[in-house]
Amino acid sequence: MIDSYKQLIVWQKSVKLVELIYKLTERLPKNEEYCLSSQMRRAAVSIPSNIAEGYKRKGLGEYLNFLSIADASTAELETQIIITKKLYPGLDFKDAELLLEEVQKMLITLIKKLGFKKILNPKPLTLNPNNDGQAVVISVLIIGFLLSVALTLSLLFIPKIRASSEISKSSAALYAAESGLEWCLYVNRKSPPQPTPSPPIMANNATFLNGKVNPPVPLTSADCLIPPLKILGTYQGISRAFEISF
């Protein structure tokens, strides 16, 4: 059972890596003090620092995040060593490279192990893992907040959507009534018994009637010759009418 991050082998080895990097960078020229030397030291120190901070975070997700940062710092340090070897081939980085490679492998193994544990147990850890009541209260508050947001949004947008649908239905019914009126006016202009055309087919299954609603009866030529005319357009329960006398 590990009681402290200091017992982690990967932390111990990364601290040893920091010591090696400091000794090596001391041999770099003075003009690299604020360039390669400083960057390599910061990258090296970042590795054990993030391992330690992540361990103390108590949350598995946070721990994984800090381990990932530590792993990224190993890649940064590795790149800086490659550059330094090219610029100053006289320096021997072999021991540092071997130790860095070992730390990288250990970090990847630890990240995979903790990541698999998180998949098996996705429940987040609280600041006080022994206080289950605190976790329950927080969960209830979060769920309540989400439900209140969902209810507010529904109250705001559902009436608008409904109103938009009603306008669409009303327009279809109005179009049906208008079409029926136009057809009746056309029939009245013709002198009987001259044949008249059949009623036009309405769009969206809308129908037009001459005041006959129960049950709906299609408009006929005879209906159009009996004033006054009440032309009724219907669509999905919405009705719109025109009335004309002549």
Could you give the topology of this structure?
Blueprint: H1 9-25, H2 36-55, H3 60-87, H4 94-120, H5 132-189, E1 207-209, E2 229-235, E3 238-244
Antiparallel strand pairs: 1-2, 2-3
* Arithmetic mean pLDDT: 76
The arrangement of helices and strands along the chain is HHHHHEEE
Q: Spatial order of the strands in the main sheet?
A: 1-2-3
CATH fold annotation of the largest domain: de novo design (two linked rop proteins)
Protein described:
With 246 residues, the chain is mainly α. The protein folds into two domains: 127 residues, de novo design (two linked rop proteins) (Up-down Bundle), CATH 1.20.1440; 73 residues, no CATH class. It has five helices and three strands; from the N terminus they run αααααβββ. It has a three-stranded antiparallel sheet. Helix 1 runs antiparallel to helix 2 and helix 1 runs antiparallel to helix 4.
Quick summary:
This protein is mainly alpha-helical and 246 residues long. The chain has 5 helices and 3 strands; from the N terminus they run H-H-H-H-H-E-E-E. Helices cover 61% and strands 7% of the residues.
Key traits:
de novo design (two linked rop proteins); elongated; 2 domains; 246 residues
